[in-house]
Amino acid sequence: MARRGLRAVGANLLAIALVLAAWQLVYLSGWKPSSVLPGPATVVTNLWQQWHTPVLWHALQTTMTRAALGFSIAVVIGTALGVVVSRHRIVRVGFGPIISAVQAMPAIAWFPFAIIFFGLSTSAIVFVIVIGAAPSIANGVTAGVNHIPPLLLRASTTMGLDGVVRYRYLVLPAALPMVLAGLQQGWAFAWRSLMAGELLVVMANTPSIGVLLNNAQNLSDMPSAIAIMIVILAVGMIIDTGFAQADRAIRRRRGLAESGNG
């Protein structure tokens, strides 16, 4: 296990080194002036300076609070919707295409409605996070339930499992891998919706990652803009790693992955 973890860290570091090397080569080629495309050293220095200021941490706290709130609401709504759709065929036929269409709809298209309805507020951003993430989670739950072997469902009926008990002890555990995939996809939609929202819904005296990125754009400060983009990328990678670890844990418990220490 430890050896695989070290190999994964080594692979990540190698990938980062290759990206930095390619970036440096493009910078040295003079394709764009340094004010438009700064070198890695300039951006890393800028990021290091921002890292030691309270503004970045306050902004990150605001952004992650919004993300946690919106995604939590999306999980509750998406899971409940997925259960209802998977249980009733007529609901699945009627609402399934609508859920998929909402999932495919760009998050930014919801912001005019959200801003008119909620005003320039956190509620507008949270609404778009929920509307962006919940359909993916619902589809994940529905797909997970649909992939449960019918023999297993018949066996549960024979054992007297029904209603909430059946979902609690059989359906949701059996559908968990697909549910987790839906959660991961839902998080991706939520994170993209949040970043778009913070760029569009700018509130006075409320610093956030999107506001910092917007400020860098207004000042044509490319090193700061790229530094904030790196922060956004890093947060996304950390959350994605958490989902990957959960997926591996589920597969190990079900004998679908090696669980040795090598």
Outline the structure in words.
This is ABC transporter permease. It is built from 10 helices and no strands. The protein is mainly alpha-helical and 262 residues long. It has one domain: Orthogonal Bundle (MetI-like fold), CATH 1.10.3720. Helix 8 runs parallel beside helix 9 and helix 9 packs antiparallel against helix 10. The longest helix has 38 residues. It starts with a helix and ends in a 9-residue tail after the last helix. The relative contact order is 0.12. The mean pLDDT is 86.
Amino- and carboxy-terminal Cα gap: 5 Å
* Number of distinct helices: 10
* Arithmetic mean of pLDDT: 86
The shape, in one word, is globular
Q: Helix/strand-derived class?
A: mainly alpha
What is the succession of H and E elements? HHHHHHHHHH
CATH class category: Mainly Alpha
Overall radius of gyration: 22 Å
Count of separate structural domains: 1
Please render the helix and strand layout as text.
Layout: H1 2-28, H2 40-51, H3 54-87, H4 89-104, H5 111-118, H6 122-146, H7 150-158, H8 163-200, H9 209-218, H10 222-253
Helix pairs in contact: 2-10, 3-4, 3-6, 3-8, 3-9, 4-6, 5-6, 6-8, 8-9, 8-10, 9-10
Q: Which features would summarize this protein structure in a list?
A:
262 residues, mainly alpha, MetI-like fold, 10 helices, globular
